[in-house]
Amino acid sequence: MLFRVAVPLLALCALASPVTAADYPDHAIRLIVPFAPGGGTDVLARIVADNLHKKWGQPVIVENQAGASGAIGTRAAMKAPADGYTLLMASTGALMAVSANADGDGPFDVNKYLSPIVIGAAPPYLLVANPNLPVKTTAELIRYAKEKPEGLTYGSSGIGAASHLSGLLFASATGIKLLHIPYKGTEPAVTDLLGGRIDIMFAPGPVVQQFVQSGQLKALGVTDTQRSKFYPDVPTVADAVPGYESVGWFGLLAPPKTPPEIVKKINEVIVAAMQTQEFRDHLATLGAEPKPQTPEEFGRYINADVAKWTKLVKDNNVQLPGGK
């Protein structure tokens, strides 16, 4: 008798799931950032958290779980309940760390591991050089590097980070030799660049812009396909290296199989927030402009991005953190 009653109850629970999504959220949300506080991913996470809190009145608690180039925090989000109460602010490097440990031999599909919600920003990087390096343009840098059989050094915020992959792509596209020096974050890498201990770096624009303006660093190129309105006097790297493009995206995701109704609800809040001047002003601090997408568009964007970098990594025999 109990069994007969249980079956209809299960069916009713299944039918009631949209009501749960409609009532979402009714308590605090945890937003995992897989990097240390203060970086671009963390900054954007706090902007998103503030907008979600303003919309729904529920606390959105930013939780930094740094380590392994973003793999530790990302895996924590992957294992969390798929109820919309754990979110992840991920980045290029974090998803590369996940893809390095993905199952199977086929193309990486982010939808197997996470639920994409919305891209927050995709800022370009600045190719910057120590002022003692005798070059003024990207083309001059390439010629100079080819005359140095021992190569040049470049720093990054860690193996697999966008700043690392940008340099790897640059070396691969130009045929020059670059020795990668990974650091535990962007700031120590910039410090060594300023001190002349490394030659160049692909760095977040807002981090190095003050040093470019003061003449402590030289900006040779921007890594997007078009000039950035934030650095209008800096030509693109693609002017000297046709087809070159490297942007470090930040985006909001949820654990795999999070109900589509909840994913859509969060997406709509953030896309609406992107239209406000306040949100745009916040993004400007990252050197970025809003690029709203649907969850489906964001998923396709991630898969194409990971495919691009995975090929580059494999071609250059790079072992990413968290890889097999």
UniProtKB/TrEMBL annotation:
Tell me which Pfam families the record gives: TctC
UniProt lists the family membership as follows: Belongs to the UPF0065 (bug) family.
Instruction: Fetch the InterPro entries from UniProt.
Output: BUG, Bug_dom1
Keyword terms, alphabetized: Receptor, Signal
Q: Where is the signal peptide?
A: 1-21
Q: Which domain of life is it from?
A: Bacteria
What is this protein's record name? Answer: Tripartite-type tricarboxylate transporter, receptor component TctC
Which species?
Answer: Bradyrhizobium canariense
